[in-house]
Structure formats: C-alpha cells, structure tokens
Amino acid sequence: MHIGSLINGIEVRGEGREEHEIRSPYNGEVVGVVEYGTREDIEQAVQTAYRVFHETMKKMPAYRRSEILRKAADSLEAQAEDFARLLMAEAGKPIRDARGEVGRAIQVIRFASEEAKANDGELIKMDSAIGGENRIGFAKRYPVGVVAAITPFNFPLNLVLHKLATAFAAGCTVVLKPAEKTPLSAMKLARLLEEAGYPKGALNVVNGTGVDLVEPLVTHPLVKKVTFTGSGPVGWKIKEMAGPRKVTLELGSNSPNLIFNDANLDIAVESILKGGFTFAGQACISVQRVYVQKDVYQPLLDRLVPKVASLRIGDPALESTDIGPMITEQAAIRAEEWIREAASEGATILVGGERNGNIVSPTIITDTKHHMKVVCQEVFAPLITVIPFETEEEVIAAANDSDYGLQAGVFTSDINRAFRIAELLETGGVWINEVSTVRTDHIPYGGVKLSGLGKEGVKYAIEDMTETKFIGVRLL
Ligand SMILES: NC(=O)c1ccc[n+]([C@@H]2O[C@H](COP(=O)([O-])OP(=O)(O)OC[C@H]3O[C@@H](n4cnc5c(N)ncnc54)[C@H](O)[C@@H]3O)[C@@H](O)[C@H]2O)c1
Ligand SMILES: O=C[C@H](O)CS(=O)(=O)O
C-alpha cells in the first residue's frame, strides 16, 4: 500500500512530499509507504472541510447521513478480515485482537448511524421561570462545523472511527491527522467511507508527524473543535494551542483494579489476564495496579502467575499468539528500564521482565513502592504490579493516589461495598466484577484528572460536536 493524504476526495502525493516506510513492528518487513503531507496540505484540507460543511453537509438530511453510515458499516463488515490483517501488519496487533478491534469498529459505525437520527434537542418548560408564561422554548443542537481529529497508534481503526463516524452523524466535516506509525488503516477506512457515500471533502486526511502538522491544524481559525486521543503531555499541549475551540482529550492512565477477599478469584484472574496483557498492555485502560486484599493476595498470585507465564509470545499473524511486539523497540526499552529500575529499588519480578527486540515478556511485579514508575506512571506495556491491602479505606486512598483517573475495576460479591467504592473512586468509569480494560463503544468514556477532558462513546462524542442554541417564542 502506498498512500498520500486525502483532500477533497483526491489522494495527494508526489511533488516533493517525503516518503516514509511503515514497517511491521514484529519483523521489520515493509508493510506500506506513506507520503507526508505539508502545512499547505493542512490549509487545503481545512478550507475544503469548511466549504463542504457549508455547501453540502448543512443541507444533508439526517436520514441520509444515517444511511451512509449504515452502508459503511456493512462494507466494513464485508472487508473485516482485510482490515484485521492490515491492523496486524502495521501495529503488530495479534490477529485475534485485530479482529476484535474491527468488530468493535463496525458497531461504532452502527451506533453512529442510529444516533444520526436521534433527537437533537429538548423542549424547555418555559413557565418554570417567573416571566416565562406564554412562551415556548426549545434547545436545539447544531453541528459545530470543522472538526480536527488527531489519533494514536494503538487502536488505529476503532479510535479513528470514534471521531469520524460521530462527526458525520453530527453533520460536521473533519480533517484527520492519524498516528504516523499506523496511517494505512486510517487511509483504507477513509476510502471506504467515501465509497459508502461521504461527500468528497467531508473527510480529509493529512498524514505526517504531529510535530509538523498538529499546530497548524488545531490553531486554524476555521477549525471549531479539536478531538485528540493520545498521550497526556501531547494532549495538554494541544489544549493550550487550541485556545477558544471546543476540546476533547482522551489520554492515558495507570488503571487500578481492586480485588476483595469475597471476590470470585477465578473470574478476577481471567479478567486480569486479559485486561493486563492484551495487545501487550498498549491500551489506555490496561490493568496496571492490582490491589489485592491480604487474605487472598497469595491465592490470587498462585493462580495468576502460571497463567501469565504460559501466555504465548510471538508472531501476531498466528492465531495462537497472545503477546506480540510493542509498537517500537524504543517503547520496549522504556518498559524494560522501568522494570529494572523498580527491581533495583527492591521490587520483585515474579514472572517476565525480559525484552527481546520489540517484545517484552508479560510481567508481574510485587513489593513495589508508590513512587516507582511502574506504579505511579502509565506503563503502557505487558506489565502489572500486584499490591496487598487490608482495609477498604486504605485501598480507596491508594487507588485515588494517582495523577490519572480513566477507568477502574472492583471485584467483590458485596453489593453495598461495590456501590460505596464506585462512588468514591476518582475515575471517569468504574466496573464491578470486571477489569478497567473493558469498554463497550456506546458508554460515556473519558477520564478525569490528567486522563482527559470531555467524553467519547458515540452519543457523547456527537453531543460534543454540536452547539446548543436556544430558540424561544412569545405567544402573541
Ligand atoms: N483515553 C483514551 O481513549 C486513549 C485511547 C488510546 C490511547 N490513549 C493514549 O495514547 C497514548 C499512546 O498513543 P500514542 O503513542 O500514539 O500517543 P501520542 O501522543 O504519541 O500520539 C498521538 C497523536 O499525537 C500526535 N503527536 C505526537 N507528538 C506530538 C507533538 N509533540 N505535537 C503534536 N502532536 C503530536 C501523533 O502524531 C499522533 O497522531 C497512551 O498514553 C495511551 O494511554 C488514550
Ligand atoms: O487505549 C485506550 C482505548 O480507549 C482502549 S479502547 O479501544 O477504547 O478499548
């Protein structure tokens, strides 16, 4: 696959644009070539998106937007295996996980198709206010216009769709800057959306690095909303750049998962195994800090350690592979350094802790201290820390002692405790008897503290791509 950027339905390439190879994170094979767009491409893309918003999208009825999205979902379903193989190739995602991502992406488009036809406002009970008698009032939502979308490498299809399908459902147009490590699936998706009926220029994609392209994109006067998913430092910098524009930030975390002595340990262990190590832990809600009540601490480890040790590491193309490569060797080296640093300060590596090229073996660390990076920062690697606790108060304080707050998991069979803790955890979402890593694509999703700003989840992302206008009538 050789791609450029997509502006007004035309793939722009050549004319001095730099070529970059996309290589498999597993074996280094060339998977495709991308030509980086320029600042002028950003200018063209935003101008196009602005024109198409006013000339075309504003006139397109909701039922038509819904139909186009439905067609896109059908088309993605028909090409699901091709997309899964591309995700596997460009991101090194094990093929079973890649299929899972495509399955979710199809659902995202279907949710967006339904939401495109949902109510876009509400009637206000005007006479609740003194002076509101004989008035009719309603709040109606309108698309903001041009949306700038910036996306990460780890779910290069689904997280792109959380922005593109929702913007289209809302009636907005988009300029997308996908992760430079995984631009191929984004471009294949853009073509699919155009074939399904997106008007030319409703979706524009400019490929290249964030450093080069994001500042001119998010500061462009015609851009009305910036939606970013990625790492915290970059996200908060983008918010500063974006100034008065609406901003959504979906950032990282070091997700806590709390296991009480009345929990079903088998379910907890299976859930941690999946939630801590899928896609080599490269998910923002990956299980990272596992707090276990003292009397079940050793029994939990006795069950978990052998299962983690037997995860199958290797070629993401194989159906049997559980753990593939990390996205780059640099990312794997960083994880290895954090593990070594913790060990040098007294932490115990119960299993894993080794690196071979881009692959970090699935790792469990105990005897950690709060200040260790593997505890207090986002590890974003196949690594969990297991920490004992005694009381509910103690574990709530420990879980909340974090700069982040995206999702949490709590395992207990005591319904009162479950709700008590759900109220007290400082996170955007809490699961009971499920790990932090689970997300269905229609729930409100987004972090507090340094984990982000605003919500995604199809309906919620659409809301954030609209402005509410009050319209009132005085009855004469
Ligand atoms: N909360 C969520 O929904 C969510 C989902 C997925 C990933 N994430 C987070 O994303 C991170 C991993 O993804 P990543 O490595 O692709 O993130 P990243 O921040 O490096 O890159 C994300 C996007 O930002 C751009 N970018 C990078 N550096 C930039 C800069 N200096 N200026 C402007 N733009 C820049 C990249 O080109 C890319 O498009 C993790 O921290 C993870 O937790 C969060
Ligand atoms: O990496 C973080 C993502 O939000 C995980 S998911 O794709 O939404 O499940």
TrEMBL record:
SUPFAM superfamilies in alphabetical order: ALDH-like
An annotated Gene Ontology molecular function: lactaldehyde dehydrogenase (NAD+) activity
Keyword Endoplasmic reticulum: no
UniProt EC number: 1.2.1.97
Domain of life the protein comes from: Bacteria
The entry's keywords: Oxidoreductase
The keyword Protein biosynthesis is assigned to this record: no
Family, similarity comment: Belongs to the aldehyde dehydrogenase family.
Name the record gives this protein: 3-sulfolactaldehyde dehydrogenase
